[in-house]
Amino acid sequence: MFGIRLKELRTKYGYTQETLGEKLGVSDKTIGAWERGTREPPMKSIKFLANLFDVSTDYLMGNADKPHYYSLTDKDQQDIDTELENMLNGVSENGGINYFQNGAKLSDQDRELLKASMRQTIALSKELAKRNSHQRNIEVVNNNLEALLMTKAHDAIASADHLIRQFNSRDPFDIAKQSGIYIDFQELGTDILGYSMHSYRIPTIVLNLKNDELTNLSICGHELGHCKMHSRFDTNFFNRMGLRPSVGSVEYEANCFMFELLFGNQEISPMNYGAVLSEYGLPGWMHEYFDLIK
Fold first, then answer.
1. Does the predicted model carry a pTM greater than 0.70?
2. Residues 116, 205 within the same domain
3. How many domains does the chain have?
4. How far apart are CA 210 and CA 187, in angstroms?
5. Residue 170 and residue 125 share a domain
6. Is 173 found in the same domain as 125?
């Protein structure tokens, strides 16, 4: 369904596969593959397209029939018809409409024209009201997510600080050893930097043999956060792609834990954030975590 919707909207807004690809920073062949359903787009591209075409992501993905969350439903349309009939009947009975045409009775034709006009106005008003309500709900959700973000960051940082005091160390390898967490080094290819898991109740951190020393330090710190905070999860991977985790996710917490462990006692200038991240094998967007541990 995504491919069908994408092609319909692309055509509606006058984009070719090439021009739409330029907007997204991908090739026209990629757009064609999305439309044919032979490839799936990343979520960031889906969100970009939804904003570009002014539709919801659910509509674009084929999970909703209405283009917007605030689009009028069948029930809304029925409510409008009921409200409109009540208004017209009320106005006619009270003689209010007779003010038109010098008090002459409203003809059936004029009444239908008035009905169509009023219906359009009521529908527009209702949709605007739903849109405003939707925007208010978005603001509430965003505020709640921001509060959740800060709470989870605080909890993760507090967890790291507790271990630092308990073991008198910021070295994740040292803390893991004293905590009874087994660390192994294996060949994991080019994408997976490391992972953690609990097997037979034994917490284990596995690091890629190809990692350098500082990269292993950061990945070990991240996976140590999982071992300490997320033992209920089976396996947690750290991928070289460094994709930004969703707000409030376990990856976000593990990142906060790792940053407090490695950098919480350092004064790092914002001008040096990029260099430090690169040195530790971390993606550039992670600079935002430095602000959380200040």
1. no
2. no
3. 3
4. 7
5. no
6. no
